[in-house]
Design a protein that fits this description.
The complex is a heterotrimer of chains A (204), B (225) and C (684). With 204 residues, chain A is mainly α. Chain A folds into two domains: 88 residues, no CATH class; 74 residues, no CATH class. Chain A contains nine helices and no strands. The longest helix of chain A is centred in the first third of the chain and has 36 residues. Chain A starts with a helix and ends in a 9-residue tail after the last helix. Chain B is extended, with a radius of gyration of 28 Å. A two-stranded antiparallel ribbon of chain B has the order 1-2. In chain B, helix 3 crosses helix 4. Chain B has seven helices and two strands. The mean pLDDT of chain B is 84. Chain B has 225 residues and is mainly alpha-helical. Helix content of chain C is 55%, strand content 5%. Chain C is built from 29 helices and eight strands. By secondary structure, chain C is mainly alpha-helical. Chain C folds into three domains: 389 residues, no CATH class; 66 residues; 176 residues, Rossmann fold (3-Layer(aba) Sandwich), CATH 3.40.50. In chain C, the strands form two sheets. Chain C has a six-stranded parallel β-sheet with strand order 5-4-3-6-7-8, with helices on both faces. Chain C has a two-stranded antiparallel sheet with strand order 1-2. The chains are: A mainly alpha (204), B mainly alpha (225), C mainly alpha (684). Chains in contact: A-B, A-C, B-C. The interface between A and B is large, with 120 and 112 residues.
């Protein structure tokens, strides 16, 4: 259970947003102020998290913990980027190019690794999960969409086939809509629980 | 190719190869690359937050005492100080208040957003398919449209039923009539179809990324031959 | 002789009980041969089986233990569950715990497994049969065996020393299990559950924990069964009879032969880890027959022979022959003899357990070495044992294993061996095979893609049909007039930049060519450097301004609610009402949803469109269907990405084809595995 103060703060901020949104546009000013506060506090929370990350790795280096060489890499890259950014400014094209030249290939390669992992995982899916309505429909759907992704069928340009393809392509909408509504309801329940201090951050 | 482009290509290829070394079981170069990514991303994020958020939103209003927003800025300042205290062992409890503030505001936004932006439009869209104007063309019923509307309705309900069934399973209550099991199976079919499409979509996106990375490596190698 | 009649087989025709070695039903004469498999031995010819059958039946009928059960004190190791049930029912009142075990085992089919469910089936079949004739005699005889074994088990379990083993290696529960395990190396046939050994050991209060322990014990017994070579009849008889106290004092020599089989067949746990648990003094909870009591030296001889015999069994299916009739006459020993022999054994020059431990850690010694360690008395006996005829038909029932039992035991052995042990060795060997497979698949994809890229670009046909949302987006863009304002929100990470830029750049170029006013906003910090690349690909001026929107759509709500307070976007993007279209270039359907949920309700007439990755497209479909999105482009076809020279469409197709093959292979392999499993079940 939360402490009374945190409970009150959470409830007040939530109620302020709710009331402001329901009485909009008259409550627009209140909403704008509260949301600006949220943006600032969230940004500071992000900075705190970054500081905590760097401090943790510094601690690893000082203690010489296993893998501290990687911590050194992290801290050095952090300091270098920070120094360059402070020197040139965030909007400087060279600085942006430098950051982009590092982040882009790494993230792209990491996403590329996902393809490789999925490829090896594809064979295991049915062995691990067995046969069920869900796995069979999943497998059939995946195969059909892979075939559609190849583009051979579309390029045949047969009207009936194209209609069938459009129908098949629209099928995921049904499941996705059900999932969205289900997730929405769950999110709603969760939001109420957070609002009334039954769950979420700030628990003591 | 300009020197800066060549330099970027060399760095990119080197980092890409380091990431792909994971395939061969390497952990060192993969670890170096990922730690570089974390370090650079964290520093860039910190710089952007400081220069694009804290300076205009927090520091600038505080610098001008005559500004009307000065007093309003004191609240996020106080909350921010409490958050910073979390970095110290004795101040971890202090962070609960700003986090509660964030949680409350975001929860309220979610309530309004989900209700107005997802639940209401999606349900209304589903119901809207049964409007007489859509189902009938003059005096003739549009059987295709009717079937489609029914299928969507049944599919969504059955998918929601799968959610409900999972909740029941967690609660330990699994006694259900046979026809409800059938409805649940229909829901699983639709979920499976959606997951299949998502799986292919994810693979497709990852494949594009992989081809791009490989293309860069090949392009780099071709520069020397 | 100690025939273990615990493993009886039901005639497929009349359903009556038969001895395991019987190839024809003793009641109706029906063929039963297919039911039997002798572990490690080839099947005998029909003539031999027939020949021995009459001998066995005659032997059973002449068995004094069957005729005069009151005088008998034979010791089967672990009578099977069905017999236990019968005996308990017949001889004494059913204990509470046993009732619970049965009840729970009947309810939880998964928990008892196929092995035990087979036993339950036998129970059910037997309950319908009348116990008459030889069968009745059998039951009465077994009941007495069981009563006695239960009593003695409990006594020995309590006497188990606890200080003779490394507690760090073997947990308490495993010690107890092994202590209760009746001469695990010698067990041949037994059942998984309702073991009589537990009768006295079970706590009065039946809990899940104790039930689990019972299951583990049963599994452990299966392990023993699986790893057990088929010794000659006399060997088994003698092994079964040596007292547990003796084992406690000298376990090392007993286990030396055993680990070899375990290691080879079931796992790769290092020797140290393998043998230490085996060195735990194993209590023999089975009742002792005085006639079967032998010195430990004898036992060691028999154990030593086992390794020879399991190899010989492959070549000599007729091994272990006339020993059975001989030993049948020895089945009525006196308890006094047992005690005297126990005393002799205690005085025997055996090495203490502590000295045995290092020996166990060493690799399994050769047979010759083991024999050399044996006392002269044992070595003298060995030739006699080795000369025993090897007629499998004469093998007593306790030496027989059904094939399915052997298979299941092999499977379970690997599980039970991991219990309470360090499994690093096993994982270390398993890994390479999995990794090799993954590596092969990965390299296959990589090679396919590289070759495809090297062959050269293969453009996708430009007139490839687009999806419905993409067509709607194209229509929406076509409707925009000159000087219409379009807000482009860059909301993606670097990982998806290649795909999204390829999709968005042609659209932006088209919008620019139509004379629309484009305003750029990024909600992600990474958008600041990613925008450069996008603008360059779209052919837009390099000095195009890209504003950072902190807090993503939260900042936009703030701006929409009261633009005078919000410092969003440095004043560039303050009023969304002036835009005809908001184009969300995003790699996250959640962020798109956030815009649709949080911003759209504030500004009703505003149109939202999206450019997103293929993986997010299905989630955006409902929003397109509901009209919240006027259209979106996702994937290769929608953006005509395949027609771009920089992108290898052939490689993309190759990747999809390989994934298709992998999925199909996965399905086929699973189907094949299921078919094999079904076939095995059908055979069983």
């Amino acid at each position: 259970m939360k402490r009374p103060l945190t409970l009150i703060v959470g409830l007040l901020s939530g109620l302020a947003v709710l009331v402001a949104m329901f009485v909009a546009p008259r409550g627009g000013s209140v909403l704008a102020v509260v949301l600006n506060w949220v943006i600032v506090v969230a940004s500071v929370a992000l900075l705190v998290a970054i500081a905590s990350l760097v401090l943790t790795h510094l601690r690893f280096i000082v203690k010489g913990r296993k893998g501290f060489l990687l911590s050194i890499v992290l801290v050095l890259s952090f300091i270098a980027t920070l120094a360059l950014g402070l020197l040139l400014g965030v909007d400087d094209p060279f600085f942006l190019g430098f950051v982009g030249a590092i982040i882009r290939p790494i993230e792209t390669a990491l996403l590329g690794l996902v393809a490789l992992v999925m490829m090896s995982a594809a064979m295991k899916i049915f062995r691990e999960r067995g046969w069920s309505v869900l796995t069979v429909s999943f497998g059939v759907s995946a195969i059909i969409f892979l075939i559609l992704g190849l583009g051979f069928l579309q390029n045949l340009k047969i009207p009936v086939l194209n209609e069938a393809i459009r129908f098949v392509e629209a099928l995921p909408m049904i499941g996705a809509r059900g999932l969205l509504i289900g997730i929405g309801i769950g999110l709603l329940m969760m939001a109420f629980r957070v609002l009334f201090g039954m769950e979420g951050s700030g628990n003591d | 190719m300009s020197p800066s482009e060549l330099f970027a290509l060399i760095i990119g290829v080197a980092l890409t190869v380091m990431i792909f070394s994971y395939i061969l079981g390497d952990r060192l170069f993969f670890g170096i690359a990922t730690h570089i990514l974390i370090g650079v991303s964290a520093a860039f994020l910190a710089l952007v937050v400081i220069q694009k958020v804290l300076l205009p939103y927090l520091i600038s209003p505080l610098a001008d005492h005559t500004n009307a927003g000065f007093l309003l800025t004191l609240v996020p300042l106080a909350l921010s100080i409490l958050l910073v205290l979390m970095l110290f062992r004795r101040g971890t409890q202090a962070g609960a208040i700003p986090l509660a503030f964030l949680g409350g505001a975001l929860a309220a936004l979610a309530i309004v957003g989900v209700t107005r932006g997802t639940l209401a439009p999606q349900i209304l869209s589903m119901i809207g398919r049964f409007e007489p104007g859509q189902l009938m063309h003059g005096a003739e019923p549009q059987w295709g449209v009717i079937l489609e509307a029914l299928m969507i309705l049944l599919g969504v309900i059955s998918v929601l039923f799968v959610f409900h069934h999972r909740g029941q399973l967690k609660a330990g209550n699994v006694d259900r009539p046979v026809f409800l099991e059938g409805v649940g199976s229909i829901g699983q079919i639709f979920i499976g179809i959606t997951f299949g499409a998502l799986f292919v979509g994810l693979f497709s996106s990852a494949l594009v990324a992989l081809i791009s990375s490989l293309s860069d490596i090949i392009r780099f190698i071709s520069l020397w031959f | 002789m100690t025939e273990d009649h615990s493993e009886l087989n039901l005639c497929p025709k009349c359903g009556m009980e038969n001895l395991p070695m019987a190839t024809r039903c003793v009641h109706c004469g029906a063929e039963m041969e297919s039911l039997f498999t002798i572990s490690g031995q080839a099947q005998r010819s029909d003539e031999e089986s027939e020949e021995s059958l009459s001998d066995i039946i005659e032997e059973i009928r002449n068995d004094p233990s069957l005729k005069t059960p009151a005088e008998v004190a034979p010791i089967p190791e672990i009578p099977p569950a069905d017999q236990i049930d019968e005996s308990v029912l017949n001889s004494q009142e059913l204990p509470d715990w046993l009732a619970k075990v049965r009840e729970r085992a009947q309810e939880e089919e998964d928990s008892i497994g196929d092995l035990a469910s087979g036993t339950i089936a036998m129970d059910a079949a037997r309950s319908e049969e009348a116990s008459t004739g030889v069968e009745g005699e059998f039951n009465a005889w077994i009941n007495r065996i069981r009563e006695k074994s239960q009593q003695e088990n409990s006594i020995r379990a309590r006497q188990l020393p606890t200080d003779s083993e490394d507690p760090g290696q073997v947990p308490d529960w495993l010690q107890r299990i092994r202590a209760l395990r009746p001469q695990s190396e010698e067990e041949i046939t037994h059942e998984v559950k309702t073991n009589p050994d537990y009768v006295d050991e079970m706590p009065p209060e039946w809990t899940d924990e104790t039930l689990e322990e019972l299951r583990r014990e049963a599994l452990a017994e299966d392990l023993e069964q699986a790893t057990e070579p088929l010794p000659p009849a006399s060997t088994i008889d003698e092994e079964e009879t040596f007292p547990s106290e003796h084992q406690t004092e000298e376990p090392g020599e007993l286990v030396e032969e055993e680990p070899e089989l375990i290691e080879e067949d079931f796992h790769n746990i290092p020797d140290e880890e393998e043998e230490i648990p085996e060195a735990i003094p194993e209590e023999d909870p089975a009742p002792l027959s005085e006639a079967e009591e032998e010195t430990p030296a004898d036992v060691v001889v028999e154990e030593t022979l086992e390794t020879e015999e399991i190899e010989a069994a492959e070549e000599e299916p007729d091994f272990q022959a006339e020993e059975v009739p001989e030993e049948a006459g020895q089945d009525l020993p006196q308890q006094d003899d047992v005690q005297s022999e126990e005393a002799e054994y205690k005085e025997a020059p055996v090495e203490p357990e502590t000295s045995e431990m290092p020996k166990q850690i060493e690799p399994v010694t050769s047979l010759a070495e083991e024999e050399s360690e044996l006392p002269p008395e044992e070595q003298d006996e060995e030739p006699e044992e080795a000369e025993q005829p090897t007629d499998s038909a004469a093998v007593p029932p306790d030496l027989l294993l059904l094939r399915d039992q052997q298979d299941r035991a092999s499977l379970l052995a690997s599980l039970i061996e991991e219990e309470g042990r360090v499994t690093a060795g096993k994982q270390a060997i398993r890994k390479p095979s999995g990794r090799a497979g993954r590596l092969a698949v990965t390299l296959l994809l990589l090679i396919g893609l590289i070759v495809s890229i090297l062959i050269g670009p293969a453009a996708m046909p430009a007139d490839t049909p687009k999806s419905m949302p993409a067509l709607a987006l194209s229509d929406q863009i076509q409707t925009l007039a000159e000087n219409d304002q379009v807000l482009v929100v860059l909301d993606y990470q670097a990982a998806a930049s290649r795909e999204l830029e390829a999709l968005a750049a042609p659209l932006l170029a088209q919008l620019h060519s139509q004379g629309t006013q484009l305003e750029f906003l990024t909600t992600q910090p990474s958008g600041l450097f990613l925008a450069q690349s996008l603008l360059a690909q779209a052919g837009l001026p390099e000095d195009t301004r890209v504003d950072y929107l902190p807090g993503s759509y939260l900042g936009m709500i703030s701006s929409a609610a009261n633009s005078t307070i919000s410092p969003v976007g440095d004043g560039v993007v303050k009023n969304l009402h002036s835009f005809q279209l908001v184009l969300l270039v995003s790699d996250s359907s959640d962020n798109v949803r956030g815009w649709l949920e949080q911003i759209a309700p504030w500004i009703e007439p505003l149109n939202f469109a999206a450019v997103t990755t293929q993986m997010e497209a299905p989630v955006l479909l409902p929003y397109f269907d509901s009209g919240q999105l006027v259209g979106y482009a996702a994937g290769i076809a929608d953006g005509n990405l395949g027609s771009q020279v920089a992108f290898s469409y052939r490689a993309y197709r190759v990747g999809l084809l390989l994934m298709l093959v992998m999925l199909l292979l996965g399905m086929i392999s699973k189907g094949e595995a299921d078919a094999i499993r079904r076939e095995e079940e059908r055979v069983e």
